Amino acid sequence: SAAGKTCIIQRIALDIFEPGTIATTTAAFTRKEMKYNDADITLSIWDTAGQERFMSVSPIYFRGAQFALLVFDITNKTSFDQIQYWFEQLRQKSAVDTNTYLIGNKSDLESERKVLESDAKQFAEQKNMKYFETSAKNGGGIQELLNSLCIDYSSNTDEIRQTQKVILQQKKKCC
Questions:
Q1: What structural domains and CATH numbers belong to the chain?
Q2: Contact 135, 108 (CB under 8 A)
Q3: What's the pLDDT score for residue 71?
């Protein structure tokens, strides 16, 4: 909670930062349309509540997700500690092949850092997640995150096409 998830989404989708954004209490949906390697990509993004009282609702949105961004505030150790809970929820409620990213937000507040980058990277590596640090406030790390999402999306799309091609070829041989 208060890790800056909504602000990251606003930065991704609209390239804005609104100080004083209120905590998400329901799920909010937005889209980001972009080009990557001459392909049109549309990211459909669900912003879910992170507060404890909403923990039972958020996993509903995990099903069918191709990507999950688990966000913590680098200036708040408790927000990092809660990532383990969200990671377990994601593993239980989502597809096995969901690409998961660990995002340390508020990198513009380096002097107030409470979570070491090395600890976050180690945790991400242990859980097979990619790690990025971002600042929704100044946009730092956002483009790198988007580039990685696009690369993974393109890889997944190619794998799906290959799988569909193999299935179609197998069907042709059978009939």
A1: 5-174 (3.40.50.300)
A2: yes
A3: 93
